[in-house]
Amino acid sequence: MGAYILRRLLLVIPTLLGIMIVNFTLVQFVPGGPIEQIIAQIEGQGDVFAGFAGSGDAGAAAEPAGGAFDDKYVGARGLPPEFIAELEKEFGFDKPPVERFLSMMGNYLTLDFGESYFRSISVIDLVLEKMPVSISLGLWSTLIAYLVSIPLGIRKAVKDGSRFDTVTSGAIIVAYAIPGFLFAILLLVLFAGGSYWQIFPLRGLTSDNWDSLSLFGKITDYFWHIALPIIALTISAFATLTLLTKNSFLDEIKKQYVMTARAKGLSERKVLYGHVFRNAMLIVIAGFPAVFIGVFFGGSIIIETIFSLDGLGRLGFEAAVARDYPVIFGTLFIFGLMGLVVGIISDLMYVLVDPRIDFEKREG
């Protein structure tokens, strides 16, 4: 197993490098970079670059040389080329793409992920600032999905074909079919002061008086705020996990060792939880790290927006819109690395749940 883990860890390096190369290359062809963003803001605010020119006629003197910048940047016509050149130098665009990529990856190896172009804050601090929201959504939605789906899936497998199985399957399919954002709006309308009851707060992760609350008050306030977002985010997650649990149990129940255990006179509960459970739950339990990391990283941009939660989902979206490259590539590197490591942890979970699994023999 040690050799397998070592091979997987070594494979992380070229995989992560490939991810970064592909995304960095694609970004080079995407219009509307950070310099264009600055130019657009300047054009909307008037002659705000006069201070950069140094004198009143500096802009006019530099105007004839501005053609090259006009062709390179949309909307740059009439701006002093010295100003554009200064922006390029500030953002590092005065260097060739290959040199910029190598410099970026070298900084990443020292855990230097740079600073946001537009927020004057390091990428690490920005991620840490948004992480409580994403952890809240990812952790609780995953735990609730497992705590509900596993018992429900087992019950459906035992009662396969019964009225209970049919009714719950219908309810699960309906819940899965409802878009999360639509269900979130419905919850707001019903329970957050929309048109009916104002039971839950409309936005935010905590109240304004959070610091003055007692420990119990802080815990209550926290769960009070995340109740609706978690419900909206989790409602569609039940279907896949519940049906996966049910089908896994059905496959195991029909196997010969279950019939043998029943023939020996073991109770149905002993057969179900003493023999079937470990084998049936292998794929469900072992996949927990991957499921959590998927919810955590993916974040729901729409859910966060509806409930005014400032998490990693909105951070990624806003960085992409603003072409905030340090945030885009920094978070891509961090989350890509963690995702690859979680893949290895998922394999280790398989071995932990069922020691009979040997990945080295499978590879051989």
Q: Kindly give the count of domains.
A: 2
- Measure the end-to-end span: 12 Å
Give the CATH topology of the largest domain: MetI-like fold
Instruction: Provide mean pLDDT, rounded.
Output: 78
Number of strands: 0
The CATH architecture assignment of the largest domain turns out to be Orthogonal Bundle
Q: List SSEs in N-to-C order.
A: HHHHHHHHHHHHHHHHHHHH
Strand proportion, as a percent range, falls in: under 5%
Helix percentage range: over 70%
CATH class of the largest domain reads Mainly Alpha
Number of helices: 20
Q: Sum up the overall morphology in one term.
A: globular
Low-confidence stretches: 45-70
Largest sheet: none
**For this structure, what is the CATH homologous superfamily of the largest domain?**
MetI-like
Rg, rounded, reads: 27 Å
- Computed structural class: mainly alpha
Architecture overview:
The chain is an all-alpha fold and about 375 residues long. The protein has two domains: about 1-95, no CATH class; about 125-364, MetI-like fold. It is about 75% helix and about 0% strand. It has helices at about 1-30, 35-45, 50-55, 60, 65-70, 80-90, 95-110, 125-160, 165-175, 180-190, 215-235, 235-255, 255-265, 270-280, 280-285, 290-300, 300-305, 310-320, 325-355, 360-364. Helix 1 runs antiparallel to helix 19. The radius of gyration is 27 Å and the shape is globular. The two termini are about 10 Å apart.
Keyphrases for this structure?
364 residues, mainly alpha, 2 domains, 20 helices
